[in-house]
Amino acid sequence: MTKLLMYSVRPDEMEAIRAWSRDNGVQVDTNGLEFNASTADLAKGYDGLVIQQHGSIGGPDVYAKLKSFGLHQISLRITGYDIVDLDQASANGLVVTNVPAYSPRSVAELVLAQAMRLVRHLGESSVRQASGDFSWNGLEAREIHDMTVGIIGAGKIGSAVARIFRALGSRVIANDPVHRPELADVLDYTGLDELLEQADIVTVHTPLDGTTHHLINGRTLAAMKPTAFLINAARGPIVDTQALIGGLRSGRIAGAALDSIEGEAGIFGVDRSVSGYDNAALDVLEAMPNVEISPHIGFYTDAAVCNMVQIALDDVMTILSGGVSPHQVN
Ligand code: NAD
Prior knowledge:
Layout: E1 3-6, H1 14-24, E2 27-30, E3 48-51, H2 60-68, E4 73-76, H3 86-91, E5 95-97, H4 104-119, H5 122-130, E6 148-152, H6 156-167, E7 171-175, E8 188-189, H7 192-198, E9 201-204, H8 218-223, E10 229-232, H9 241-249, E11 255-258, H10 280-286, E12 291-293, H11 302-320
Parallel strand pairs: 1-2, 1-3, 3-4, 4-5, 6-7, 6-9, 7-8, 9-10, 10-11, 11-12
Helix pairs in contact: 4-6
This protein binds nicotinamide-adenine-dinucleotide (NAD).
């Protein structure tokens, strides 16, 4: 019988995993560990591998080890595949797949929630209420239909974000090298500088790669309106965290919401209330009432979890049977 191993499995994924295993007649074993050099040996004896994490899977030795175990693939049950060195994977005959679209709405709806918290100053209000200050001072807000939403990267998730804000009556502009005709009624494409100058909410939905690392930096933050909000529910390193802290402290922008932050690996998704963690920038941002932090939960809805499990496992079987998955990234 074909035997697959899934790493970093959460209890909420088990129902979908058991159902897939039963329906496909394939043994699927699970563990709660991240995949890396110290846990890679667990994959020995398995036919296929599914992982999900936000930290790197390790250096060249890890890829060589998987090859020596006779494995032919690494399937990620997430979208971003920056944790895998694709050159190393290819060099060791490992096909890498991701789940490019498990539910773009899941992230888009979190962006809506973050935007509304920022726009209505709910963070500021909560802090004040905790000390008995129920005054209205500084809480006057704008209405979302009067605002311009600027989307950097209007792909699957950015398009879903655009449709939500357009439905609320906002003007939506987007910067993306790819112009999608199906979005003609939803948004207007602009240059990046124009977007930064005009948007009341700037929300980033690009992949993390060489062109987008620190795309939001001192220069781009300075180009935003001082009344504007920044949202990053894509990948942490797209925003230069120190520049963001500087921009918030100096009032260069009005607030920010982050579902992903530099150095989040090993922190987001983990209970660190007892052991603590080492990310001073996160502490600084957590203490700011005009900053909303969520621990990389954009993807985390029931529909999305089920799709991630099923699509990743289907991809493993496609590759093991000699087929080509539409989700191959190398
Ligand atoms: P996608 O590939 O469908 O869309 C990305 C878009 O960005 C594309 O249209 C591309 O042309 C555009 N783009 C690329 N480089 C650009 C640049 N320099 N400037 C402007 N546009 C650029 O990707 P997606 O599925 O929509 O995912 C978007 C991001 O969301 C990724 O970073 C992904 O890792 C992240 N993500 C986060 C969560 C979460 O839980 N917060 C969940 C899923 C995905």
